[in-house]
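Lab notebook page, bench 4
Experiment: in silico fold of construct C2
Operator: M.H.
Input chain length: 675 residues
Purpose: comparison with the prior construct
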Amino acid sequence: MDFDLSPFQQSDLSDAVTGLMAVLDLELRIQWANRAAGESVGEDPENLLGRYCYQVWLGRDTPCEQCPVQSTIRTGMYHKGEVESPDGKVFLIKNYPLRTPEGELKGITEVTLDITEYRRAEVSLRRQSEKQALLLESVPTQIWYLTDVETYGTVNQARADFCGLSREVVEYKKLWYILSEDEAWVCRDGNILVFQSGELICTEEWLHNASGEQRLVEIIKTPKLDANGKVEYVVCSGSDITERKRAEERVYSLTKFDNLTGLPNREFFLELLGQAVSRSKRFDECGAVLLMNIERLKSVNDTLGEQAGNELIREVGRRIWDTIREQDTVARVSGDEFMILAEGIETGEKARRLGLRVLERIGGELELSHRQFYPEASIGFTLFPHGASDPDSLIKQADMALSGAKKSANRIQQFAGDEEGISREFHLEQDLKSALANEEFQLFYQPQIDLQSGKIVGLEALIRWSHPQRGLVSPGEFIPLLERSGMIASVDAWVVRKVCEQLRSWRDEGFLVRASVNLSARDLGNDSIIGVISSTLEENRLPADALGVELTETELMENMDRASGILRTLSDWGIRVALDDFGKGYSCLSYLQRLDIHVIKIDKEFVAGMLENADSLTLVQTIIAMAHNLGKEVLAEGVEQREQWQKLLELGCDYGQGFLWGRPQPPDTLKVQEE
């Protein structure tokens, strides 16, 4: 072979070229090889001369048809390509034609590079990219890139599906091509912020989906910075949180609003009231809190049904809402009570006028269960911040005013007390919570007399509270607190147990006497008092007729359905039931016929005035005659004069109770002995 290799040797190609380099004749025999070629097969380059390249480089017995050297031989032009050896190695082969001065192809210069590791790395990277792409496409989260504040880069399928377009259409388009103009401006504003700050931001954006429905998308925008700290691009991930938001709103509605009327509930009203009081102090403004009670709601439920009662509540709520000012707030705070927060009202007269408008609007004709009905209500109100400085005190003031409003002619009243009284009641209520545990309660007993014989026929047990600092507290002061706090049931159970223990003690000493206990309306709401009475009588080995119970007329009428069953049970056992304060409440004969009541107690106010007032005397006489006609016995309360005793005897009254025979006394000072 006539090759002039001096140019290759002179340029020292054996050191200059990385990889294998050789000169081949047209039969692919090696005519010259560099040092790297020899090192690749572990031989001196001189020993490679005359051998076939495919045998030396690839370990093949025959030429590889895919090798670019074949193309160079056929075309006489430069070719390159990749060839894989039997042992799995990959080589990049570049072939350059060698010609004689006359242009005749005489040989080939071949450069061979081992690119096995490069190709393996490339395959690994491609597989990793495929995995990442699969991961991005398999998640429901929308993912896209922003190349600038208003241009998409690549997007995943979830984002394209949300837009209702193919990925090819979305990618590298402006926001205005994909979104509405308003949406594009909103998104652009958020994008400007992240590109300028270089910090991650999270936004919530209302966007239209492929169906044209507006959806709330939570978008996290993460900037990617270059070496100079400049934002190169932004990665965005978006999640449709519309349903989550709606669920959160439903939960918020349940915790903040009344489900029957849709108005704020008590907790939310207290929150709003607290904010209003704070504003009033800061800006020296005033306001009013009005507490409104629907009258006869229970009667509506009992006679027309619960559905009619619910409609009454809803309609009252609507009428209040239609009457108050735009800046006012109305809330349903309990079953039959609404509260109004009226900011900017400086005087009681303005608050009264607002309340009167509400009462007038409520009192309009209403159809319930195909019957005409005229709702009635009462309102108590107070002012802030001068009347009180905290929500709890304001509500207590309004509640106290409401109690007075129910007795007034126009059914509305302003709180006329002072904050000191509210504070005193608050602390008294806190002290009550420990009174039972600290054994601060005690029982006094007042005799009940047979008017004919003058003998004691029974005793009424009356609870007293011996406060550690204040001494004896009036029952009229702490009994309502027990009712409101829910502790009355526990205290009544304690009274029943103590009275039965005392009766047992007296009987062991030979004193046989009956004692009656006063039960609260709360006791008529469940059957627990039945169990207390039964177990206590059994524990103290007492007959049922040794114990009596007394209930006020008003409380009894407000719990008619439950009371009738409980009273029937007590009566069947032999326990005598007395109706206390008769004449001050409903005084409905039908109730007396339906209920198992043995004794009617005439209220002391009527007894006190019967000697001077003809109307009072007539009322007492009528009650006695009516009770006897119904088969009931009668006991007159508040007897303090012998003249009253004599008059009651003339009228046929059976029993009496009052200071004439004795004041309430502790059991150790009371002489209880049958004559």
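Observations: The longest strand covers residues 214-225. The radius of gyration is 50 Å.
Next step: discuss at group meeting.
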